[in-house]
Amino acid sequence: xxxxxxxxxxxxxxxxxxxxxxxxxxxxxxxxxxxxxxxxxxxxxxxxxxxxxxxxxxxxxxxxxxxxxxxxxxxxxxxxxxxxxxxxxxxxxxxxxxxxxxxxxxxxxxxxxxxxxxxxxxxxxxxxxxxxxxxxxxxxxxxxxxxxxxxxxxxxxxxxxxxxxxxxxxxxxxxxxxxxxxxxxxxxxxxxxxxxxxxxxxxxxxxxxxxxxxxxxxxxxxxxxxxxxxxxxxxxxx
Length: 238
Prior knowledge:
By secondary structure, the protein is mostly helical.
């Protein structure tokens, strides 16, 4: 079956069959954000949670000026924690700097780990260096997935000052934590990061070792290019 037209998508979204509505949302990928938005809004309050989740995600992918306020409302007021988590994640796709403070509040105030996880991931997507404080706090979480998100996000915001803090996870028993660490270190040009990546490149888990090798190559290239590596005057051991 070829792509549905906008009229067909609208008809499918009005169907009582939830599968029709899911298919319709998937076909919106073929259209511009402006064309997709009115149809996405039709199912933001759908009775089927999976459809609501798809619609919230679509607001981040098909970004318009209306996406931000809708996602903020969902993040701050929706009673379903899954939808709040979806909204936090979609805000990261927008890469809108206005989302920084709402995401920080969500991390500190929401009681559900999934929302806090999504907020940490999106803080990395924003590339805002102000997120370093909250992400360092996230490293102390009892939830391993939040630790993973924080490590990755600290790499995304290029928080070189946080290198020592994330290096504490080099001996983690969770291979996904070690993989996130390897990926993050590839964004943090310093001799310490380079040394840690050489260690992780020998990791017993092949995906950790592969990620470390890739990151080590990236880091070597950055360290050889002064304007992409250490800031001028920075002590490489700081």
